[in-house]
Amino acid sequence: MAVPTRETVYTELSRRLEPALASGKMKPLADVKYPAWRSQPDADGLVVFYSIQVDSKATDPFAGAQFRIEVEHSTQSLPARGLNGRALFFQLLTTEETRNLLTRQNEVISSLSTPPRSHVDLYPEGPVRQAYLGYFKRQRSFDSVNSWLRYGTESDVRDWAELLGPLVTPLIERAANVLRPDERYLGRGSLLLT
Fold first, then answer.
1. pLDDT digits over 61-81, tens only?
2. Residue 144, pLDDT score
3. Please, is 70 exposed, middle or buried when counting C-beta atoms within 10 Å of its C-beta (0-12, 13-18, 19+)?
4. What are phi and psi of 48, to 5 degrees?
5. Bridge partners of 53?
6. Neighbours of 152 (CB within 10 A)
7. CA distance 21 to 171
């Protein structure tokens, strides 16, 4: 079975997360290359962005592919116009929410087919090969490098949407309450104290 295309993933996640985003008064943006939504400006002119980004460089018939969620609290009209005020999804999750996502992540990882030796040998010995083989090992946390949610099938994408749907509103609220548009967050760990 082939790994779903980026377009399929974007369509499936957008369709399934749209009701939660709409209930949070988030409007879809048309001027961005990936699915993104924006809140109405608050009294200070700040908006919250919620976006889905597929890693277009990491698709492999054995390791699958990956996407991530970003939130941003900004004065900009479009997301990702700077580093300040942006955070990755895991930075605004509670310990329990993180644990639930890691459980799903490891279910996906354990469902992946082990690549044959001939495929592994395509990667040069050393750090590149070790990084590739790392895709098949249990993930213990999310961080700035391991910030991607993995999938190998359309069913994985649907399962992610089901798990992420209830987190849409908390992520939007936390982005508005925790993130400052003049501070850098990318690369840090959790921004919550739970």
1. 899 999 999 999 999 999 999
2. 86
3. buried
4. -110, 135
5. 68
6. 22
7. 11
Q: E strand or H helix at 98, and its extent?
A: helix 95-111
Distance from C-alpha of 166 to C-alpha of 187, rounded to nearest angstrom: 25
Name which of 89, 87, 91 is nearest 79 in CA terms.
87
Residue 56, Cβ density class (10 Å: 0-12 exposed, 13-18 middle, ≥19 buried): exposed
- As a residue count, the chain comes to 194
Q: What is the pLDDT of residues 115-145, one digit of tens each?
A: 999 999 999 999 999 989 999 999 999 998 8
Asked if residue 66 lies in contact with residue 148, where contact means CB atoms within 8 angstroms, the answer is: yes
DSSP assignment, residue 90? G
Residue indicated by tokens 């936390």 = 174
Backbone torsions φ then ψ of 138, nearest 5 degrees = -55, 135
DSSP string computed for 39-73: PPP-TTS-EEEEEEEE-TT--BTTTBEEEEEEEEE
Q: Partners of 71 in the beta sheet?
A: 50, 87
Scan for tokens 């992946």, then name that residue.
112
In which element (H, E) is residue 177 found? helix 168-178
